[in-house]
Structure formats: C-alpha cells, structure tokens
Amino acid sequence: MKLPFVITGLILAAAGAAAADFVRDDLSTEDAKRVAAVTALPADFSKPEQFEAMPAGAATVRKARDQNGFSHPSGNLTFEDQEKFLLGNGLFRKDWVSAPSSTQASDGLGPLFNARACQSCHIKDGRGHAPAHPEDDPVSLLVRISVPPDAAQEAAIAESRLVAAPDPVYGTQLQDFAVAGLPAEGKVRIDYEEVPVSFADGTGISLRKPKLSIEKPGFGPFAGGLMMSARVAPPMLGMGLLEAIHPADIMAHADPDDADGDGISGRPNMARDGDGNLVVGRFGWKAVEPDILHQTAHAFSGDMGLSTPVSPNHWGECTKRQPDCRAMPNGAQPQFGPEEVPQDLLDLVVFYSKNLGVPARKDVSDPQVLRGKEMFHAAGCAACHVPKYVTSRNADHPAQRFQLIWPYTDLLLHDMGDGLADNRTEGLANGREWRTPPLWGIGATHAVSTEAGFLHDGRARTLLEAVMWHGGEAQDARDRVAGLDTADREALIRFLESL
Q1: Each residue of 227-267: pLDDT tens digit?
Q2: 337: which of 10, 80, 105, 342 fits an S-S bond (Cβ 3.0–4.6 Å)?
Q3: Distance CA 499, CA 53 (A)
Q4: Is residue 209 part of a domain?
Q5: Are 308 and 341 in contact (CB under 8 A)?
Q6: What is the mean pLDDT of residues 267-273?
Q7: Is residue 386 part of a domain?
C-alpha cells in the first residue's frame, strides 16, 4: 500500500531534518563522546557488556521476575514519588461504574466501552492476549476501525491532525460493551488457521494465522471500505524512559528511502503534542501518540468512555449518529471538576505509567545467552531493535534523566510484510507498517501472565512464532533465524528470554 504523496513528503522532510532540527542539545561535547562510546554496538560476545544487567539504569527493578514483575516502581524513585506511584496504581486498578451512581468520583463509565479498568487490558501491567477460541470474548484486545478518507480528511492526516477517517456511525474504535439501555457496537470474532513453518535443520513449528470479523453490529451496517485492526494491550514497563529518549537519537536511525541500501527503511510517525507542535510519535502499535499523557487520556476516552481535560467529551467515542449514547448520564461532579477524570487524577495515572520499572536482566553471563546475543546481532535484528540509548538530561523527571537504557527498539515504523499487514493506515503509517516494539522485559512475559500473546494482535504464542511472522524489511533477518541450526536458534530464544 503506497502512501499519498503529501504524507510521504512529510515523513521524508521530518527524517531529512534530523541533522538540522533534531540535535542533542542537552549534551556537552565530552558527554556526547561518552554517549557515543557507551551506545556503540558490541564486537565481543564472549562476555556481557558493562551495565548490561541493568536495562533501565538506576531505574532498574531488582526484584523477582514473577507475576508482579512489571508492577514495581522504578528503582530510583524517592519516597514521596513512591507514594504518588501507589496512588496512581490504585486508579489504574479501579473498576469504574456507569452513571449515576452512589459512589463518589468512580462513575461515568461508557456509555460504550471495552473495559472497566486500565488493569483489565494491561494485565498485571503486562501484555494482553487474543481470544484462544472464536467464541471467546476478547478480554484485553480491542479493534481499531476506519474508512478511506475523503480529501479533507486526507489533508488532516497528512498534517498529523487526524489519525484516521472514522466510520460515520462507529468512529475509530469498536466498543464491545455498553451500559444498560444501549447495545454494544458489535462482537469481535477471531478465527485461526494453523500454518506450518519449516527450518533448515528439518524441524518446524506451526503459526497461528488470525482472521478478524465483527458480528452483530449494534447500530446498523458499517460504512463501505471498512478497515479493521485487532490490537492487544502492550506492556507498560519503562514507558517514562522511552519518553525520555531524545528525539535526535530516534531520528538518527530513520532512513525512509533506504539511503544506505541495507534494506531497512525506518520512518517516524509524526504526532501533535499538547501545544500543537509536530513531534516524533512514540507510543501505540503504530506510534501515533506523542507522549504518555495523550496515550493515557485517549485510552480513558476510547477504552472506558471517561472524559479528561485532554479528551473532554463525557460520552467517549459515541458519534453524532449515536444520539441515544450521547444523551446518557455522565459522571462529572462539579465538586471534583468538569471532567469524569479531573486533571489531578489523570496526572496520577500518567505518573504511574511513566514509572513502572523494568526488571533486571537474568543470566547475562551464561554462555548460551551470550551465543544467542551474537545470533541476534548476526541475523540483523539490532537494525530495528536498537539495543541502547542514553536518555536526555532534560527529561521531565529526575528518575529518567541521563540513564543508560536497553529497550531494544528504534521507535520507528517498519514495513513488516504481508503476513503482519492490517491494511489500515493510521497517522502516517501505512497498512504494512508497525512501530518496533521494545523487547526489554519480554522474557518475563509469561511469568506475569500465562495467556499473554506476542505481536500486535497477540497471534504469536511463543517468541519463536513472533520471529517467524517477521516479513518485509525483516524478511532477511527472519530467514537467517530460520536457517540456524537447532543449538543456535535455541540460544537466540534463550537470549530473548533473558531480556
């Protein structure tokens, strides 16, 4: 799927501006030399790199990688900040109810929604999962929808003022639950086909290929040309540190026209911040969100139908063609403010989301792990899953400032091929592009939630399945992994499990 010329031009302009407009203005000359040295890719795989066991620097959490492994505060928070973190945790876990209610400041859910609490989707602050069977309800998965844009909408998308053209009735997200008196917008169904994959050593695995459909639309037919994309909730760990990566370090890896000829053409998705400025998108499966504040506020609105100062509509995503939905009671209470989630509560959830800690690595000195790390680099995985950065000295919070971190992402969009394509544009991302997801903590995924799935729609049940779904720009890396002998492939997975 080709991007409209105006969108392509904006991406190229942003990437081309990296040298001029995206510079590390927070570093002295001496600091810049130190950062360049410490973030250089390794050449020696016989031993761990310095500080490698601490993927979040001083913010690393040195506690058990168990079911609570993603729920601890960053290791360098002050006592006062830990108290603030715990208050945010309470709000993150709170079940909201529909209005009116006898509760104080806990009503306003919906009228249309996907979950009653943030924790319902981000299970134990980790990944969600796809339904195991077609008849199962999606517990931590939602469906983005949109239609082909008209000329005005296309221009707004090109200017990063609109993410996607909404279905005139259903908007840009399907809500599969509703308060009493309203129908849900539809029931999500995912069927699976098992696809065998063989390796060069004669072994093989089976991949789970999903087919997404929406049954029982509650407000009439969808518009023509409907585009759908299933999304599981991503893990929450380390988000504040990702926000603290200097934009120049992200743009340094952008190469939208593959000028170096390596087959990797990462490009930024651009977004508008709270002041309307064009910035590099960082969050969401296609990097449409500029920061954690907007990511959080839009989740409150789209997922739970709760208003905030950023998204003040009490009815969430109910469209003008859903008047009964817009007429339902809301939970705003004058004594607390004009929104259902006033600024002070929103700030607490944002603070919590920024400061969920990254667990320490395990087995960094193990020979098999080191061999797997060598295979990771030899296969070319590090071209997109960029291992490390030093965060900005000007980060908003001291806990995130000037930390050597190892998130294994470039936060850029990459063409991942037909197999992973959702064929739905989002912001400046086309239907084959996805943001490189961070890999830190990925080895603890199933310790946190045994049902958690990998990739954007949770189709991959194991890390090896996730690797084998890679295509497009990652096809060569995927093929190199498929060509490994059993020992080296197992070492690669062992390395990923150590992250």
Answers
A1: 999 999 999 999 999 999 999 999 999 999 999 999 999 99
A2: 342
A3: 9
A4: no
A5: yes
A6: 98
A7: yes
Whole-angstrom distance, CA of residue 263 vs CA of residue 114: 39
Indicate the residue type of 368: Q
Question: Could you tell me if 323 and 180 lie in one domain?
Answer: yes
Task: Assess contact for 435 and 491: CB atoms under 8 A.
Answer: no
Domain count across the chain: 2
Same domain, 301 and 345: yes
Please write the tens of the pLDDT for every residue from 393-446. 999 999 999 999 999 999 999 999 999 999 999 999 999 999 999 999 999 999
Cα separation, 100 vs 84, whole angstroms: 29
366-381 average pLDDT score: 98
277 inside domain = no
Torsion of CA 358, 360, 364, 365, to 10 degrees: 170
Spatial distance between the Cα atoms of 350 and 352, rounded to a whole number of angstroms: 5
By residue range, what is the domain housing residue 123?
80-192+215-233+295-353
Which amino acid appears at position 299 of this protein? A
Check pLDDT > 60 for residue 13: no
From 353, 368, 383, the end of a domain falls on 353
pTM: 0.95
Residue 19 lies inside a defined structural domain of this protein: yes
Q: Do residues 319 and 416 share a domain?
A: no
* 321 shares its domain with 181: yes
End of a domain among 331, 353, 375?
Answer: 353
Tell whether 228 and 85 lie within a shared domain: yes
Q: Which residues of 343-365 are buried (b: 16+ CB within 10 A; e: fewer)?
A: eebbbbbbbbbbbbbbbbbebbe
**Contact criterion met (CB below 8 Å) for 197 and 447:** no
What are the helix and strand counts (H, E) for the chain? 16, 13
Q: Tell me if the bond preceding 111 is cis, omega within 30° of 0.
A: yes
pLDDT of residue 104: 78
User: Are residues 490 and 411 part of one domain?
Assistant: yes
* Length in residues, the chain: 499
Helices 151-158 & 5-16 angle (0-180, nearest 10): 10
Q: Look at residue 5 in the predicted model and tell me its pLDDT.
A: 38
pLDDT tens-digit map of 23-53:
999 999 999 999 999 999 999 999 999 999 9
